[in-house]
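Translate structure to sequence.
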């Protein structure tokens, strides 16, 4: 038996043809969901910095002052544990969703996808449909072509600048940032960061697009490690679709020896990554569902059943039973819940007060003119709330010890205040040379804000 193998059949072809990807506009069920979610996320991103709480910006990540303010609660670098739990919990939540639903994060919620499709929408409105854009790019330069290109890039730059300014309003109070913008009073640092983020947005969403997802985003690379045979993916039903081929609407595909795929190529033309889903599972696929909506429209026109391309799993596609209980899925879910519960408990039990105790560097103790033993301390107290508070300081543990401390300790919001403290006691009343002493720092306005710190009292 001889096989007639052509040389071109032995060449491994790239996932897409060279050159830019011209995405065809597509409407449908999954795109409606994606657009709704995209609008919700974009509006949330824009509006959150303008939310006020107790007369202040509700969400502010003030890097300069090293404090994060979130709805009346201020977090400091000392609260790194809650940030670590948040990031780890978000990571495990992403792993959980990936094992269960594949790359739906990439297709429906990733900022890169949302902004890229927004830029493509602008391109569509200014330069026209997919075929019109291809024709425009191939045509020689003219006044019409220059005006369209100028208008498109101008809108892109405006959107990029607005995105960057909105992003910076999470780090600089929005009222201050926008008032200085309109009066041209931005500092060099502010201007530099805004224009840097604007250039990144313009480059990522306008030029790099799918290249960010394919070559730069690590998620597309390690997703295969998390996938299993029951993970929900976008897949083409080969058994039903092949042999693919063009035909007239009224023709019977069985008589022609064809499957349901009419080889219209719309699934490729609407794909933001430019891949052909009919070639099987590919790491470039972001599970956005554009090819599903395009294929369903074609199936409707030909009177075929929908679902030639659909969300399914490898087991379901091959007719095998789908396992609902998967150790990997359960494990990621348990770790996600545990981390967020831990974060919640830590935040609930968190005291918005930080205190450290420093002893006198010159001597552990001293004996005054009355023969009493004195120990001197310096308490560094940080008020981690957003209101000025008064504090009382008491001590216990030293028999007959007398605490000498200021009675009026007022500390402003986010301020670190040093308080000198002296404990005086009769050395004969204290049996041990080293005695533990407890300092209690408590707010006058809110007694629940209380912290106990332990130090040592030395005698001769």
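Result:
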């Amino acid at each position: 038996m001889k096989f007639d193998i052509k040389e071109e059949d032995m060449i491994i072809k790239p996932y897409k043809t060279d050159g830019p990807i011209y995405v065809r506009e597509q409407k449908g069920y999954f795109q409606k969901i994606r657009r709704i979610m995209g609008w919700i996320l974009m509006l949330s991103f824009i509006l959150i910095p303008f939310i006020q709480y107790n007369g202040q910006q509700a969400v502010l990540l003030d890097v300069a002052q090293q404090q994060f303010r979130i709805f009346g609660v201020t977090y400091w670098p000392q609260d790194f544990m809650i940030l670590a739990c948040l990031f780890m919990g978000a990571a495990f939540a992403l792993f959980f969703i990936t094992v269960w639903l594949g790359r739906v994060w990439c297709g429906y919620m990733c900022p890169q996808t949302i902004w890229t499709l927004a830029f493509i929408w602008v391109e569509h409105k200014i330069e026209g449909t997919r075929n019109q854009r291809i024709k425009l790019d191939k045509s020689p330069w003219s006044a019409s072509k220059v005006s369209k290109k100028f208008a498109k890039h101008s809108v892109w730059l405006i959107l990029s600048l607005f995105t960057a300014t909105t992003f910076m309003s999470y780090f600089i109070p929005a009222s201050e940032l926008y008032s200085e913008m309109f009066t041209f009073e931005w500092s060099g640092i502010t201007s530099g960061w805004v224009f840097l983020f604007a250039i990144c947005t313009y480059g990522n969403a306008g030029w790099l697009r799918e290249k960010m997802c394919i070559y730069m985003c690590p998620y597309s690379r390690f997703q295969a490690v998390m996938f299993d045979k029951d993970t929900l993916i976008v897949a083409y039903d080969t058994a039903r679709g092949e042999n693919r081929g063009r035909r007239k609407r009224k023709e019977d595909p069985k008589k022609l020896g064809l499957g349901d795929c009419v080889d219209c190529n719309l699934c490729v033309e609407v794909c933001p990554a430019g891949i052909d889903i009919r070639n099987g599972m590919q790491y470039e696929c972001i599970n956005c569902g554009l090819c599903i909506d395009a294929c369903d429209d074609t199936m409707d026109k030909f009177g075929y059943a929908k679902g030639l391309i659909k969300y399914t799993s490898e087991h379901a596609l091959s007719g095998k039973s789908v396992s609902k209980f998967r150790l990997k899925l359960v494990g990621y879910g348990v770790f996600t819940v545990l981390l967020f519960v831990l974060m919640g408990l830590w935040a609930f039990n968190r005291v918005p007060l930080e205190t450290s105790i420093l002893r006198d560097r010159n001597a552990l103790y001293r004996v005054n003119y009355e023969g009493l033993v004195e120990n001197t301390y310096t308490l560094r107290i940080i008020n981690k709330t957003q209101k000025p508070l008064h504090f009382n300081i008491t001590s216990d543990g030293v028999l007959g010890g007398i605490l000498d401390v200021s009675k009026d300790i007022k500390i402003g919001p986010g301020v670190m205040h040093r308080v000198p403290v002296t404990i005086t006691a009769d050395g004969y009343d204290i049996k041990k040379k080293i005695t533990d002493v407890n300092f209690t720092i408590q707010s006058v306005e809110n007694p629940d804000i209380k912290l106990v710190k332990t130090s040592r009292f030395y005698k001769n």
